[in-house]
Design a protein that fits this description.
The protein is mainly alpha-helical. The protein has one domain. Helices cover 85% and strands 0% of the residues. The protein has three helices and no strands. The longest helix has 29 residues.
């Protein structure tokens, strides 16, 4: 079995799992009872998307997708810092 067949099989196995997880992340992001729950759902969704972009870069042999995934992950990290700073500035009881 060649590497291309292995990657294709991996993508076909993982794709339904990614779709199910994205659905759960979207539900949590929309219905989250608190802001940290929503932020955590968005973080998990975008980090999974970045990992999937790397897998697609291997599958399509497109090296441009790897820097896109890195930029996406860094953007989400910056979002985490911004939201944490915002939540830290509020009082604990609110």
């Amino acid at each position: 079995m060649s590497i291309e067949e292995q990657v294709t099989t991996f993508i076909l196995v993982v794709l339904p799992i990614y779709i199910a997880s994205f659905t759960l992340y979207v539900v949590r992001a929309l219905k989250g009872p608190t802001v940290p729950d929503m932020v955590l759902a968005i973080d998990a969704m975008t980090y999974d998307l970045a990992a999937f972009l790397v897998v697609l870069a291997i599958f399509f042999r497109s090296p441009i997708l790897v820097p896109v995934a890195i930029v996406l992950a860094l953007w989400v990290y910056a979002l985490d810092i911004y939201v944490a700073k915002y939540l830290e500035s509020r009082e604990m009881g609110e």
